[in-house]
Amino acid sequence: MALTDELKTLNNAFSGLGVDEKSLISILGNSHPEERKCFRKGTPHLFKEDERLFERWNDDRVRLLKHEFMRFKNAVVLWAMHPWERDARLVKEALKKGPEVYGVIVEIACTRSSEELLGARKAYHSLFDHSIEEDVAYHIDGPEKKLLVALVSAYRYEGAKVKDDTAKSEAQTLSHAIKNADKTNPIEDDEVIRILSTRSKAHLREVYKHYKEISGQNIDEDLDVALRLKETVQCLCTPQTYFSKVLELALRNDVDKNTKKGLTRVIVTRADTDMKEIKEDYENQYGVSLSNKIEETANGNYKDFLLTLVART
Amino acid sequence: MATLVSPPNFSANEDAEALRISVEGWGTNEKAIISILGHRNAGQRKEIRAAYEQLYQEDLIKRLESELSGDFERAVYRWILDPADRDAVLANVAIKKSHTDYNVIIEMSCVHSPEELLAVRRAYQLRYKHSLEEDLAAHTTGDMRKLLVALVTAYRYDGNEINAKLANSEADILHDAIKDKAFNHEEIFRILSTRSKTQLMATFNKYRDDQGISISKALLDEEANDFQKALHTAIRCLNDPKKYFEKVLRNAIKRLGTYEDALTRVIVTRAERDLRDIKEVYYKKNSVPLEQAVAKDTSGDYKAFLLTLLGKED
Fold it and tell me: What is the pTM of this model?
């Protein structure tokens, strides 16, 4: 293992998403103590020279490694789960983690069909002896609370019928609320919440179109400063673009662990629904196929599992 | 307990034929309609409608609508619909009134079980191509909108788990808000519209133990505005629906005119559920059986129909 090739492979085995189990088995498993010492000395980001003259594992890295080993297990468990239990658990986890991940609550409330969201609410009763809206209302403080409670409580009409003048006037209302953002935060504006949390998706897509005609920009572009609202609109009106963005971020090199979890979450939760459209959108936006990017960035069983899910459509 | 008396064995085809005869030709045999429909439960009524459609290629409901009139027609129309569909119609009527009849919405969302409320929301979408909350939100504003939409979109946990500590702290929160007359406090909305019914009962009981007065009495106020009244109604419906319905009936019978709506609504919507218990509460409070009060205050076919639903033997 003095060869740099094997050192490089081992390094790669431990970096990125998931771990390259095969290489670890064939290289590390076959290594002599001397070779392992070379490995430890050759990977300063994994091992530090201790004052008592031995190379010790970097504690933080070991913790991160645990997460990387678990990525495959988490993906499998999530995939095997009933979609209702899956969504209920994802919401509960997001509530526990805190404001940085409340976007997941928006994602689930807005990209699922009315019946799927209902199912998640039922599963939540069984799993946690509370209703989703109860816990969301209790644990979330601050301006986004009203919107999030309303979004998880919605049971939207799923048909295609839309009243054009209502859509037009509601686009006006939204435009007005965004222009007056300095007076009232649009995320707390009752009309904004009403429109986004009660109208059907078909209706909201018309509103999206009319908004562009009125203000020249897409509404989510105008909402750059109000992240939750932006996510809400994107999830409701352009979900595939939203998902491909989550994937693109998750596949970057130096992002935080919550962002990385987006990869498993999106692929597992969308593989049976709109994965095909998400793949197309991803390739159009970022110029590389999703499978190729996953091949580059992920390792081992985790990588193979994701590629299998992605290749189903 | 229900007051409806329906036979365990029945023939949908025979009933459909009998109803056909009662609407054919000049005039209508209202007695026959009351005697049949007034003694059929929801499942049976559904079968009768299907049988009638198959036999005569006509919608029984539309036919009855055209043959009957007045309070009697309104009562029969509401009665013959599926329970969830009926509530969807009642909700739509309540919303579209120039001054939204919030009591109907509150009743529906607070008295129903979570699954029943869900069924109403589905039926509403099927019938009106909008979600219930969509229409409700578009026709109301401010605090009233917040309260009604929150109540209607709730899908409460319906288990028996109670958190006593939470009941204590939330009873205190409610007390503080009521004391400061901050009726539109965020916490009031949150507690009333998201907590499970059993949890709310525990909270209301704790409130009564601490304050010596029930929370609904604490909200009683001559000068209450609409929103405060709505809050009061919601709490009464959540706390003790039978007592609430008795009050609605008592008020409906005392006054004449526009209150047939409420009288019809309570009798038609509760006849297959808990109208018998409501009758007992009524008798205790008024020393007069409900049937007697209804008979005194109504007349004709409408009266006969209501009394049949109340369990009167033919």
Answer: 0.84
